[in-house]
Amino acid sequence: MKVIIAGTGAMGATYGSMLKKSGNEVIFLDLWQENIDAINKNGISFKNIGVEETIEGKAYLPSSYNESADLIIVFTKSMQLKEMLNDIRHLISEKTSVLCLLNGLGHIDTLKEFVKPEQILMGVTVLTAGMKGPGIFEVTNYGKTEIQNIVEEGKENALKVVECINNSGLPTVYSEDILFSIWRKACINGTMNACCALLDCNMLQLGKIEKSRELLGKIVEEFAAVAKKEGTTLNVEEITNLVCWFTTEEFQGVKHYPSMHQDLIQKRRLTEIDYLNGYVSRKGKEYGLDTSFCDLITILVHGRESVLIGG
Amino acid sequence: MKVIIAGTGAMGATYGSMLKKSGNEVIFLDLWQENIDAINKNGISFKNIGVEETIEGKAYLPSSYNESADLIIVFTKSMQLKEMLNDIRHLISEKTSVLCLLNGLGHIDTLKEFVKPEQILMGVTVLTAGMKGPGIFEVTNYGKTEIQNIVEEGKENALKVVECINNSGLPTVYSEDILFSIWRKACINGTMNACCALLDCNMLQLGKIEKSRELLGKIVEEFAAVAKKEGTTLNVEEITNLVCWFTTEEFQGVKHYPSMHQDLIQKRRLTEIDYLNGYVSRKGKEYGLDTSFCDLITILVHGRESVLIGG
């Protein structure tokens, strides 16, 4: 299979490297010239579950590459997805599947502006990887990847893509209800990410504040109300139990600072809040739902962005 | 008039010193032994609008003093009011007026547990003072003090107290609607204090965040809804205009960090949130009102307390 990785950060580099090692033709696209140059010169330096590897790679700016592929995997920050899709629209042919594994909500609408529904594949992954510098990456946990077509006509391609990624060594399954998985993961991020960023704390500390369950449960309720309007049923109590479990000692990564905390507090970068609580707040208004907690959380996270980063 | 200052922090020391200088008998009570000792040894060292003064003072622990007074002014942090009233209950005679100038909501209920309604005087002050160390204080702005009895029978005493404080040099007026003034000030504190503490910013920065007016206006709305149930009508738009004005360059103190920011972020102390947004949240539930923004703000401020101070 010919695969284009559209966005060669930690996640893109990991999927691309694994796919390349297992015999696929892989092209890496990125917007960061230093990263492109490093990959072309030195290959992808890859610490793969502790094992050091170097994978030869061809990297380009999207505008400098002109050949289509069977599969494009988009791997940007949520707020850069639209720009990336615009940059690669010349690479999407009739036979190209476009797979989106980004966290967050609202990406299907964005994809539909550039890709026919039968070519869109959505997925969720819990793989964890990091970028150490231009061309230098580390994957610490393969996690599981779930993938599904968004309309029936895409199923055959989805199954092929699942097989291809699975064969590369990354455990991947076909999902019968990817929207549910996307919403469930969004609930986890919309509670852990947003609250830990606002309170400047890790997940264990979040679990220990007064009314922690009330806070997390109310956020999940609001996510579930919007999900329901969009055709996905979430069991509020089950998901609340799940997110609360992430704040207990029982969960190994409990002292982890979620990615939004890392972005906002540690790296002073804009967050993905508009694709989590911000999406629920925006859609809640459209559907006439009360999403006050997500409304306020979104205002406060943008407020922290403004105070810490300016703008 | 014989006056007892129950709580000799910056505010208590200022009112006490001014009352003493103008010929009243003043007793200073406090719970901090070092402060008591410093006052008894060196008097009150007072930087009074730039002028250095020393006022001789007699200071005691509440339990070490046994004589009643015409007026007791309580000047504690909100959360210490109840304990202080309990400590001074033996000093409250039939002829004692008890004046409370604390910020925040809910104090009348606390006062009523210890003092007859006809002896309770409520007030609002915008005087600004600071404590520099044991026995050392500074007042930077006399502001205005408003005072009213909470039941008609207390009016005569209220007028006497207004005259007495006014004669001391602190501009003081009799208020025809002290509840309105208390609620209006609570709106200012419930917006500026809570939001600047949560966002770790000053008032100018608060004014510059996206949806600042929506945020502040929604908080004011919730305060107004509870106030209405308690007999006070607040004009939401007027008060929202007022609080928004505090975040503009036009307001001189705009780069000021409100007291809750100082308490929580700078000094790592517990905040008075339960007497502002927390009161509205609690009472809102009792009255069946939606006070989601105050609910979440209260949870988050207590969350920050837990993260920063432990607990």
Task: Describe the structure concisely.
Two copies of one chain form a homodimer. Chain A has 311 residues and is an alpha/beta fold. Chain A has twelve helices and twelve strands.
Name a few traits of the molecule.
homodimer, about 300 residues, Rossmann fold, N-(1-d-carboxylethyl)-l-norvaline Dehydrogenase, domain 2, 2 domains, eight-stranded mixed beta sheet, 12 helices, about 20% strand, globular, EC 1.1.1.169 (chains A, B), NAD(P)-bd_dom_sf (chains A, B)
List the helices and strands and how they pair.
Two copies of one chain form a homodimer.
Chain A: E1 2-6, H1 10-21, E2 25-29, H2 33-42, E3 44-48, E4 51-55, E5 58-60, E6 71-74, H3 81-88, E7 97-100, H4 107-112, E8 120-125, E9 128-133, E10 136-141, E11 145-149, H5 155-167, E12 172-174, H6 178-199, H7 203-208, H8 212-229, H9 236-245, H10 259-266, H11 277-287, H12 292-309
Helix pairs in contact in A: 6-8, 6-10, 6-12, 8-9, 8-11, 11-12
